[in-house]
Amino acid sequence: RSELAQLLEDEKLFLNIGINLITAKLSLGNNGTLGINFGTRLYCRLRFDNQLVKLIETSNIGIQDYLITNKGVGGAWTREIGITYSKQFLNYNEFFSELSFGITPKLIFGIASLELDENSIISTNQINVRGSSGYRIRGGFKFSASHPDNFNLSEELSNFTTNFFSPSSGFGIGVNLGFQTVFIKTANSKYKFGVELQDLGKINWSNQVFKRSLVNLDDTITTGAISNDKFKEYSGELKTGGEFSTELPTSIRLGFGA
Length: 258
Fold this sequence. Notes:
- The structure is a single chain.
- Strands 1, 2, 3, 4, 5, 6, 7, 8, 9, 10, 11, 12 and 13 form a 13-stranded antiparallel β-sheet that branches.
- The termini are far apart.
- By secondary structure, this protein is mainly β.
- α1 (2-8) runs antiparallel to α2 (50-58).
- It has four helices and 13 strands.
């Protein structure tokens, strides 16, 4: 447990990478530009609550009261097809002389996903039990995962840069929106500003779904040391089937240039 705690301590990972297999553009003259892209993406976030790390390391809830919340644990591997339309408007004034808008609706095919529900929380409090010290443990959590049939994660990830046609286990819709403007224009330079809203949407996962959950935990123990049996008891129940949804990693990007 101490080795696991040392591994998790202060670990934070935010990853968002993608590879495009096909990218093409078509000019429509004064009517704008059309584009298409097809590729694969892998994104994840891992940020462990420091109180969880301490609890794993000590296995003792008598040291302090704990409040363990989900700081962000999850990730997904997807394949995307996007169609982009953009158009530039000109007015030839000194300020805001150029303005461009763009929109990219996307079809998203989910390959694999692992997600910890954002409402997951565990708390421990020292209480008095018939004149003696006791500890009340409350809360719950839910992990959800989905992947294709006969899925081997290590083999699939080793072919991440070449395998663009992995089977899918989910489907979703997303969109990117953005604009760019030249807000000051002089005889020798242009000063630009742009805003983009990326990945607005969600994915519904329905193939090979696994859910592990512990709901409405409310337990009282009389010792601060949590035994291995208790850890197993608190590991929750594993169920298969059904479906679940995950939000895309929505972000806003700002940019200035000259």
